[in-house]
Amino acid sequence: DAKTTQPNSMESNEEEPVHLPCNHSTISGTDYIHWYRQLPSQGPEYVIHGLTSNVNNRMASLAIAEDRKSSTLILHRATLRDAAVYYCILRDLRDYGGSQGNLIFGKGTKLSVKP
Amino acid sequence: DSGVTQTPKHLITATGQRVTLRCSPRSGDLSVYWYQQSLDQGLQFLIQYYNGEERAKGNILERFSAQQFPDLHSELNLSSLELGDSALYFCASSVGSGAGYNEQFFGPGTRLTVL
To answer: Is B42 left (phi over 0), alpha (psi -120 to 50) or beta?
Structure first.
């Protein structure tokens, strides 16, 4: 799987937008960009995924660069509950139905939210 | 609540012992994944089962084994335990077996402490 690079940590103020960057310069044309997060003392949870176009869901937005070499997870109004480690993970679309369904986690970005 | 259950929540045992961790996937999910999270190694994939069959293996030690039963619940067996096996063990489930956009749902984890 292609490698991703994320900052080790970021800080945000409550109720302000947060932009979490991820670089994936070796991304292939069939790689989906997934984001998961892990709240303290919990298992990881799915946040959002995309392939080429920007995506929105109830939790966040995903902005994907035109060349797909980077992406940004956007939390529109950070809350204290959003303090977590955020993982950017690439998954090859060609694995769907195959034998490599596992997620490969890097170190992620630890987001702190200040009241 | 992800719908994935894991028991026990905590487990304390001694070196050389054997333990069994249990996971029940979300209703309808056929794939079960096991991950280990330690302070120095981060989140690492161990093994995946799909509908009772082993699908993928990660960094799983020979002392560890797993199986998925006909009712789709899974057990992870850890034997000849060492201090370094102390970690959080997460189970995840998904509908399918592949990658791409196959979202995984994680359980709350079992914290294993080996004394």
So the answer is: left
Subunit contact B109:A106, Cβ cutoff 8 A: no
Report how far apart, in Å, the C-alpha atoms of A108 and of each of A44, A76, B4, B43, B94 are. Answer: 12, 19, 23, 10, 22
Alpha-carbon span A28 to A77, nearest angstrom: 32
For residue A39, the tally of other CB atoms under 10 A from its CB is 13
CB count within 10 Å of CB A92 equals 18
- Residue in the structure block whose two tokens are 């709350």: B108
Residues A97, A78: Cα–Cα separation, whole Å: 36
| CA pair distance B90, B73, nearest whole angstrom | 14
> Which residues of chain A make contact with B68, given a CB cutoff of 8 A?
none
* Cβ separation A101–B105 shorter than 8 A: no
Measured CA to CA in angstroms, residue A81 lies from A106, A114, B55, B88, B109 at distances of: 22, 11, 35, 22, 19
pLDDT digits (tens, 9 = 90+) for A26-68: 998 888 899 999 999 899 999 999 999 999 999 999 999 999 9
Residue labelled with tokens 């060492």: B82
